[in-house]
Write a structure and sequence with these properties.
Length: 336
């Protein structure tokens, strides 16, 4: 009898079953508390089952964590790695420690303070293997390259499917519609490479999906796109080929857009995504803080149709009336 058959019989005798992987959830961060932030744990299945066009007042479940800000009306930085959420409570102070919220045990620990290179806030974070790479949008190291100026900002980024090359696109800080180009950082070699005077077609972070074989990201005009993965080894004169879904997912009423915030996308695996967007509540004064905004939280899938066009599937959306106390803070969502 083979060892494999023998071990299977032993497993049947003892009644042991293979350990199931912990169920993942969406973790949503909001500035809906008058003295701080809240983290909500959301079941994606429940979100789809309760899909409704009605606007709900507040979330059905209380937050799993609330914590005050050390400096009133000052934003915080949030990033995720593994099963933990890293919280820079005062990203402008070099003495303030980072808080680490472990979602598996619902526990919080105190970590080290931010390094000086990250003072001002973590705008870019990418996990490669067992390492988290983080940067501000102005200090990604691109200013060392001859094509960039010190005041250029990183507007979009994505991890290459090789798992260790991070692509980033920069724009002029004053004229953000003017792309300055795209470069990459190889985390294994600590090596920068220039790729051309073009920009990734999405804003913020894009995510590689193996089924679509493309980077998926949000465009500024409210649509989602699938971008062909760029070559790691050569320059190009043109932007990689991009497909845009026909359905508009956010910015459906542009005049209700909050000027200092933007939508956030989370990748849930297997061509599934979560989109979070906060807009001004209809009929409410812009100076209002309590119950002033409507948070749209959507889950959806993506696929190519028979013509090869990108389309959304299983689109489900819920809307909640929420308070907002920091105008520059965009809601953050993680899948873990």
């Amino acid at each position: 009898m083979s060892k494999r058959q023998h071990s299977q019989l032993d497993g049947d005798r003892t009644g042991k079953r293979p350990r199931r992987a912990p169920k993942k959830h969406l973790y949503l961060v909001l500035d809906d508390w008058d003295t701080g932030f809240s983290i909500y744990k959301v079941d994606a299945d429940t979100l789809q089952d309760t899909c409704t066009s009605d606007v709900q007042f507040g979330f059905p479940d209380p937050p799993v964590l609330r914590f005050p800000v050390p400096v009133r009306h000052l934003g915080m930085s949030f990033t995720a790695f593994g099963n933990s959420i890293f919280i820079a409570t005062n990203p402008h102070c070099p003495q303030t420690p980072i808080l680490v919220y472990d979602t598996e045990i619902a526990g919080i620990t105190i970590g080290p303070s931010l390094p000086r290179s990250l003072l001002g806030g973590i705008d870019i974070s990418v996990a490669t293997g067992d390492t988290l790479y983080a940067s501000t949008s102005r200090h990604a190291g691109c200013h060392r390259h001859r094509h960039f100026a010190m005041d250029d900002i990183i507007s979009s980024y994505a991890l290459h499917p090789d798992g260790h090359t991070i692509f980033m696109s920069a724009h002029d800080s004053l004229y953000q519609h003017v792309p300055k180009g795209t470069f990459s950082f190889n985390t294994k070699r600590s090596e920068w490479r220039w790729h051309g005077d073009w920009a990734l077609p999405f804003q913020g972070q894009g995510y590689y999906d193996s089924e679509l074989d493309a980077w998926i990201g949000l465009r500024k005009d409210g649509y989602i796109c699938a971008c062909e993965v760029a070559s790691r080894s050569r320059e190009s004169a043109v932007q990689p080929y991009c497909k845009i879904a026909k359905e508009k997912l956010f910015l459906k009423v542009p005049e209700r857009r909050l000027a200092a915030t933007r939508a956030t996308l989370a990748y849930m695996g297997n061509s599934n995504f979560c989109l979070v967007d906060c807009v001004q509540r209809e009929g409410v004064e812009p100076t209002c803080i309590v119950d002033c905004c409507v948070l749209h939280m959507s889950t959806f899938g993506l696929k190519y149709d028979h013509r090869g066009e990108l389309q959304t599937t299983r689109h489900c959306s819920n809307s909640y009336v929420v308070s907002k106390h920091i105008l520059s803070f965009s809601p953050v969502v993680f899948w873990m």
